[in-house]
């Protein structure tokens, strides 16, 4: 599975491999953010004994993941499926028909400190109107890269902003209508 082959999707990407001869049985993708969990549950229930289950998440693996789907992944050997949260990254290789926990599982918890927050603009009781030159006013934005000192404070401009450590924040700041 790869973006180069264009065979991955948002949510959970699953490949089923015959555990006896290594043949690819089936691949599927399940959108766990805006999709329905029932097709995933039906897919997982159809897995036969001895089948290797390869799972790789992309974007959000858990928003629609219910207890039944989590329990099925646990029955394939997952130690982490029951603990998946919004936007966690997760790769897992399990097998249907074993009680052993998989040694091939790697979760990555989405850090809560990276939760995007809306820009903050200091408010005052004084009326304000934009000068015709659109001079800069302080604006705090979120940068998707960890900063120990907190989010950077920037000046409002008509140019895309890159934080001081050169991690593109990907936004264009423009004056707000008055």
UniProtKB/TrEMBL annotation:
Keywords, sorted A to Z: Disulfide bond, Lectin, Secreted, Signal
GO molecular function: carbohydrate binding
Domain of life: Eukaryota
GO cellular component, one term: extracellular region
PROSITE patterns: GG_LECTIN (PS52031)
Subcellular location: Secreted
Pfam family, one: ILEI
Residues annotated as domain ILEI/PANDER: 11-97
Stored InterPro entries: FAM3 (IPR039220), ILEI/PANDER_dom (IPR039477)
Family in the record: Belongs to the FAM3 family.
Protein name: ILEI/PANDER domain-containing protein
Organism name: Xenopus tropicalis (Western clawed frog)
